[in-house]
Every structure is written in structure tokens, then in C-alpha cells.
Amino acid sequence: MSAWRLVEEESEPRQPRTGRPRTGGRRMLVVAAVVLLTLVGAGGLAAARTGMFAERPDGCVKPDRTIQLYAVELPKDGTQVRLGYGLTPQTASYPGPLMEMMEGECLAITLHNQVPEATLAALRTSPTHPLGVSLHVHGVKYTQDSDGTVQSGSYVPSGGSRTYTWYAQPRNNRTGAQGTAGYWWYHDHVVGGPHGTQGLSAGLFGGLVVRRPGDPKPDRTYTVAFGDRQSINLRRGEATDTCTEVNPQPGPTCLVARKGERVEFVVVGIGNDMHTFHLHGHSWADTRTGVVSNGQPFADSVPIIDNKTLGPGDSFGAQVVAGDSVGPGHWMLHCHMQFHSDAGMSTMLHVLDENGNMPPGMDHEHGAAGATSATAADGGEHQHD
Ligand SMILES: [Cu+2]
């Protein structure tokens, strides 16, 4: 039962039916709202609230699928604290695992906070800010219960767990709902302060794809988050590309594909800077789902691009056929704001031949093999079955 509803129920019966406008109740509502906002602003109500809001969005009768997600502390990157989400604690990474949903699907995600309280305390910007991690998502539907914020009380203290419900609302011609298919992302909204700024910059973020039935499935998906300090997935320069020449392992710092594979990028803007996402040798249809249109592949109304602007909080997707027409090679992927790419915001999409080999003569252009050790598992890459 929400405090708002309590106020309305109490105020209404007390109004005499005089025919005059009933301003008293409205005034009480305003006063109550100011009091409530003040309390919320002070964080006074936040921690203890459970079950005050609807558990699930309209249209989600019960979850179709349940997954477990773990927030853990990872080895430091220099002096920088690193946190990650993982489907298991052992596979946590930054970016976190790619989430995939089908329009119409309702997904329950139980987040387990295994980040030590001392780490969260060291990251917080105010001594009164609560200690916890959360899961906040873009694009799909969720109620206040799953907002992942302090003011809704929807976060997880250290050692605790909480279930978040996401609903990939489908298109509906009758209501005009546009549907939720497309490229989105999820992130913490609590670590450090009320906007999760420290959680985000520590690594608590990941990509989300919502597809429609019948959409072509890519062979592999890479999440690439462009952030502050000219970083791609929080790395820059040589650290953005740790592919080894022999048996490169796809991951957040190793973008690799065979010629002919359909490669999908989930591109996310984190931090405070504007960027552009540019890929050499490939171009893509600039649609919200990566799909051109059913049976009409040659529509000029769909822009074909190889560079796209990315602001903070933005996300979009790109689907390319690796090496199509251009063949194997080390294809650069970078921000096209020149002072960003010059500062290290650049990596490679390594396109191997159909047998998984880099043809002879192309090795001299190899990016930054073995420059750093990968600290994360496979969060940035998702291979489809
Ligand atoms: Cu940039």
C-alpha cells in the first residue's frame, strides 16, 4: 500500500458535499507530497520498503524465464576498483553478460550482491548513502519495484538478493504500443551515489537485445560500451585488444569473427562524453532492431551507415556480415572524434577466413596481441547456438 493512496483515502470522506470545489483535499495532497518528497530526498524511507509497488508490469502475468545474476568484485585495474555482473560469480565481467529477450517475454532476474560492503563503502560519495548494488534497465517495461534505485528501495544490500522483472512489451496496433524490440542496456543505479555513477565506472553494465519472432539471429554479439577517458569497455589503447594470433578467445577485449558470420554489436554510451561508433570495411542498416524489413531488403528509406553518433545513455545495434565483399583482415573499430581515437579509443574487429585462419601476409597489421591480460571472461561477447 503506497503512502500516496493512504493520503487520498483519508482526505476524501472528510470533505463536506457543499458543491464548492473541494480544495482542502488537494491542499492536503500537496502538503503530503512535499513531506514525502522531503523524506525521500533525505533517504529516510528508502531502505525498509518492500512490496509497496506493483511487482510486475501490465501484460506480464508471471515470468516466462528466471535467471540468476551475480554482482561481484573483480581484480583491480591498476588502482581502479572493478565490479562486474555474471551469470555465475566466476564468470562475472565488464561488460556483463548479454541479455536476450523475445518481444512478449517476461523475464525475472534474481540479482545476488556479492560485493563486499567495505568496497561499496569506499566507493560511496556520502556517508548517508546506503550500501548496495542494483539492476536498472533501459527500453523494456518494469515497475517501481524493479527500478533499481534508492528512492524506490529496489536495491540489494551486500549478501542479499532481489528479483527484478523485465517485460518486453510487444507491439500492439490497437493501443499503439510501439513494442520494445531493439538494442538496450542495463546497469547499476546505486553504487557510490543515487545515480550509480561509481558502479557504472567500475564495470556494472551490460547489453540487452530484444528481438521479435523471426528476426535473423546473429552468429555472435559483441557489447561495446564507449565511455569516459576515451575507453571502450573501460579499456583504451593496447588494452582494448588482447586477441592472440593463435586461437583468439572472443571477449570484451577481443573482437573476432570468421568471414561470412553475422556479427552484431550492441553499442552503449556510458559516462559523460559524446562519441561516434565507426567500423572500417563494413556498413549496416540503421534500424532499431538491426533488421532491414521483411522481404524488402532494398528500401532506400533505411539509411545505410558506417558511423553513428553516441551520447551518454544512448544504445543502438549494428549487424554486419564479417568480411562481406572485403575479406579477412584487421578492421579498425573506433570513435571518430579524432582526439578520442588518438587517445586510445580504438580497437580491431579481426575477421578470419572461413576456416578460422588469418591469411598469410595480414599478420603485420595485427592489433595489440597479448598486450594485457584479460581480466574478464566472456561478458562482451556472446556466441549464439
Ligand atoms: Cu569518443
From TrEMBL:
Residues 93-213, 244-352 form the Plastocyanin-like domain. Pfam families: Cu-oxidase_2 (PF07731), Cu-oxidase_3 (PF07732). Residues 368-378 have a biased composition (Low complexity). Residues 1-23, 356-385 are annotated as: Disordered. InterPro entries: Cu-oxidase-like_N, Cu-oxidase_C, Cu-oxidase_fam, Cu_oxidase_Cu_BS, Cupredoxin. Residues 1-15 have a biased composition (Basic and acidic residues). Keywords: Copper, Metal-binding, Oxidoreductase. PANTHER family: FI03373P-RELATED, MULTI-COPPER OXIDASE. This is Multicopper oxidase domain-containing protein. It comes from Micromonospora fulviviridis.
